[in-house]
Write a structure and sequence with these properties.
It holds the Pfam family Peroxidase_2. GO terms for molecular function: metal ion binding; peroxidase activity. By secondary structure, the protein is mainly α. The chain is 41% helix and 6% strand. The strands form 4 sheets. Strands 7-8-9 form a 3-stranded antiparallel beta sheet, with no helix packed on it. A hairpin with an 8-residue loop joins strand 8 and strand 9. Helix 5 packs antiparallel against helix 13 (349-364). The two termini are 33 Å apart. The model is unreliable at 6-13, 15-19 and 149-160 (pLDDT under 50). Bound molecules: protoporphyrin IX containing FE and 2-acetamido-2-deoxy-beta-D-glucopyranose (NAG) (6 copies).
Length: 378
């Protein structure tokens, strides 16, 4: 992977006391006009292709096939908090180095797991807008496996799908809250808790009842132990969705309707990013609407509204300014108007153009949902 390295006095003084390399997959979000001026001339600006369309054959098929063997990531390969994307990279549906384009994410999640096109485009462009480099069209799915150990490097370099409280967030199923240090690695203590819940509520497997109970338990854990617990949109939405994802995507496509996930299979995905031998992808395309149905069931079991602790434990307070599950358009609008706008206060020229093009692709995923598109940034 080509890296841009420069050690101008400016960059040295501003950032580190060493020569600074700016990888071409690192997000330009949050940089000042001056920093952008020094970095952008060194980037290869790419034309942005439109997102891929849906699968031609949206049914189950063998996906752990001879063309896509599991290979453990090497020390320089990027892996992150998402077991779905890690699995796709380990099986070669995504580039094995973990540096990807949003189009590659869309194609891979559809081909490997039968994610519906609207959801695939929505997630891929949402994460790209926050964590990707909009000019090179590259995004890292996490950090180098050799660097994401106990002594993590600067978040600016880890980058990837890990911007806290936007995509990576609190109350994950098998990853600890950022407050406790490591927010992206598989956590055995949490998997043990998942196992106990599966034994108690699912007869030893992960099903919709377990998903509802463990989602609530993880929220209660964070309220009781993490003074900085934050559970507002968009994390609020992704937390519920990710509790349903294992039932949609990790269950073999010959038993899609069972919505029941064996725990050994679950561990393979969560811990090793690995499909079982002979794995078939889901037999239906999981669109935003289909996932929404599962989310609704999980929410209704324990209807926690968006909110946060206030700096002390056990102080969870509902945040009336956050979008809740009954207002998806507000979630979209706030994401664009507050989060993305806040990340790019100084975008002009080609960066502004790329930003608006990505925002168009992102809105394309929900253009038939009745939400009004936020006007282009100027
Ligand atoms: C389409 C693009 C996708 C993006 C951008 C994405 C991104 C992410 C991110 C950033 C997280 C971490 C959130 C956290 O802090 O817990 C996450 C979690 C998760 N993702 Fe993905 N993901 C995508 C697709 C998938 C797919 C296809 C699957 C399943 C095959 C999947 C399964 C999961 C699960 C189960 C979690 C929760 C992990 C846990 O809580 O322990 N994701 N994803
Ligand atoms: C999340 O983890 C990464 C890698 O360990 C770390 O650099 C980053 O600071 C963490 N985020 C927060 C908010 O603690
Ligand atoms: C695993 O998660 C638990 C509960 O959040 C936390 O106390 C523990 O420190 C985490 N372990 C590691 C190794 O991060
Ligand atoms: C989950 O499994 C348990 C134990 O078999 C069962 O009682 C429960 O009804 C299941 N939940 C769903 C939603 O099927
Ligand atoms: C998938 O669903 C179709 C109907 O939509 C059915 O004909 C086919 O047998 C199913 N395939 C599997 C592997 O269950
Ligand atoms: C946080 O919430 C707790 C419990 O609701 C309350 O006692 C405390 O005064 C609040 N602290 C702040 C800083 O708002
Ligand atoms: C959810 O949000 C909508 C508008 O954003 C608000 O009108 C509604 O009261 C909220 N629901 C709850 C239960 O707070």
């Amino acid at each position: 992977m080509a890296r841009l390295c420069f050690s101008t006095l400016l960059v040295t003084l501003l950032l580190y006391n060493v020569a600074f390399c700016f990888p071409d997959y690192t997000s330009l979000a949050g940089l000042s006009a001056r920093e952008l001026d020094s970095i952008i001339p060194h980037l290869t600006i790419r034309a942005l292709p439109s997102p891929p369309g849906p699968l031609n054959n949206p049914l189950a098929k063998l996906v752990n096939d001879p063309a896509h063997p599991w290979i453990a990531p090497g020390p320089n390969d990027m892996r992150g908090p998402c077991p779905g994307l890690n699995t796709l990279a380990n099986h070669g549906y995504l580039p094995r180095n973990g540096i990807v384009t949003p189009s590659q994410i869309v194609t891979a999640v559809q081909e490997g797991f039968n994610m519906g096109n609207d959801l695939a485009v929505f997630l891929a462009y949402a994460v790209h807008l926050v964590d990707g480099n909009l000019l090179t069209n590259l995004l890292s799915i996490g950090g180098k496996t050799s660097e994401t150990g106990p002594d993590p490097p600067s978040p600016a370099i880890v980058g990837g799908a890990d911007t806290h409280a936007v995509f990576e967030g609190d109350a994950s199923t098998t990853r600890a809250d950022a407050f406790f240090g490591d927010n992206h690695s598989f956590n055995e203590t949490l998997f043990d808790e998942l196992t106990a819940f599966s034994n108690k509520f699912g007869g030893g497997a992960y099903n919709l009842t377990v998903a509802s109970e463990i989602r609530f338990q993880r929220i209660q854990d964070s309220i009781a132990t993490n003074p900085q617990f934050s559970f507002v949109s968009p994390r609020y939405f992704t937390a519920f969705a990710e509790s349903f994802f294992p039932l949609a995507f990790f269950v073999d496509g010959r038993e899609t309707n069972s919505l029941t996930l064996d725990l050994t299979v679950a561990r393979g995905f969560f811990q090793d990013g690995r499909m079982p031998d002979d794995f078939f992808r889901s037999n239906i395309s999981w669109t935003l609407g289909a996932i929404g149905g599962g989310v609704e069931v999980i929410f209704e079991a324990h209807p926690v509204l968006p909110g946060a602790n206030n700096g002390t434990i056990n102080s969870y307070t509902v945040d009336p300014n956050s979008a809740n599950l009954s207002d998806g358009c507000k979630a979209y609008t706030d994401f664009v108007d507050v989060i993305v706008r806040g990340l790019y206060p100084s975008a002009t020229g080609p960066l502004l153009q790329a930003l608006n093009q990505n925002l168009d692709f992102f809105f394309g995923a929900i253009s038939t949902s009745g939400c009004t598109q936020v006007p282009a940034f100027v």
